Amino acid sequence: MKILVASDIHGKYDSFKKVVDFFINEAIDEMIVLGDIFSTTYDISVQDKSIINEFWTIADKICFCLGNNDSKYHEDLLPTSMNTIIEKNFNDKLICFSHGHLYIPNKNKYNIIVTGHTHKVELYKDSSIIYLNPGSVGRPILLNIGSFAVISDKVITIFDLNYNVIDELKL
Question: 72 Cβ partners below 8 Å, 6+ apart?
């Protein structure tokens, strides 16, 4: 089982298309988008429409978290609803997925906490919890190129949009 995690697309279709291509070519099982999908809060650009079309091509394999730049208007265009927090049991580990702009209650119950929002790549373990921020697909900070992450049975890997490994942590 593999989960691809992408965040903060901000309407950058060409960047997101690279993520979708990786998702399909690597036969990833599921994609979770951590929010801030579109270029503006209450409008849809041509690039945003292309992103929506990509979501619908993988509709049965995708989940969404609500970001601070997302709205109910956007949610109505997506194949599934947006959630503040998504919890997944994955290989006997409880994972919390959230955009990261809101408080996450009961953090100690999770083995892995995955957030976006800051646009900064992070992957580290603090006592018993692994923290992952896949960075931003569309507006990276500290990198010259967007990034995303893949959680697999044995390792968490962060990739740039040229599919180079930025960081990884064994589970």
Answer: none
